[in-house]
Amino acid sequence: MQSSNGRPSGGGGGPESPAEHHDGHDPDLTDAPAAVRYDDPWYDALASGWGESAGAPVPLPTDGTGRDRRKDTDAATADVYLQVQRSAAFQEVRSRYRRFVVPACVAFFAWYVGYVVAATTAPGLMARPVAGAVNVAMIAGLGQFLTTFVLTWAYARHARLRRDRAALELRWDTQELTRGVRGGAL
Questions:
Q1: How many C-beta atoms surround the C-beta of residue 83 within 10 A?
Q2: Among 6, 70, 131, 183, whose CB has the most other CB atoms within 10 angstroms?
Q3: Do 93 and 101 contact (CB within 8 A), yes or no?
């Protein structure tokens, strides 16, 4: 018996599975005209600025002393970021972040550890029925999920009300300063 791809079929003489003689490429794509092409942007397209350039390498501009202007610009840009990081506005944003996140993480971790410890050391307490088949362990377990959602909501609200505006102003100032360092081109 001959298979559809021209190879003899493996014993048995029964119906063939299409995967039985698959040789690694799709005959539909192999037989397709050259104008038809399957483009997968995640497979064969290089990211912007990665890989090979389209033409000959472009020499870097110099400042007349033989040093690259890009190195000087990068150093000046790094100084801008250090200046912003040391600013009072940046320190205020970071302290507001820490004042919320550290206590929230400590409280949530204590609540989680308390739940695990209670489940392992006090099974009688956790098995106590609350309403019908619902017991203390089920209520505490669902409370873990509820706490996660409430904490996420509280974090987003805190960020929106107390940090986002100041962080956006810092970002804008940083972009303006780096644009000035780079000569207006960003």
A1: 13
A2: 70
A3: no
- Measured in degrees and rounded to the nearest 5, phi and psi for residue 166 equal -65, -40
- Under 8 Å between Cβ of 48 and 141: no
Q: Describe the chain by its helix, strand, coil percentages, rounded to 5.
A: 55, 5, 40
**pLDDT tens, position by position, 102-142:** 999 999 999 999 999 999 999 999 999 999 889 999 999 99
CA distances from 112 to 100, 144, 146, 164 (A): 18, 7, 12, 29
Residue 65 pLDDT grade (very low, low, confident, very high; cuts 50, 70, 90) = low
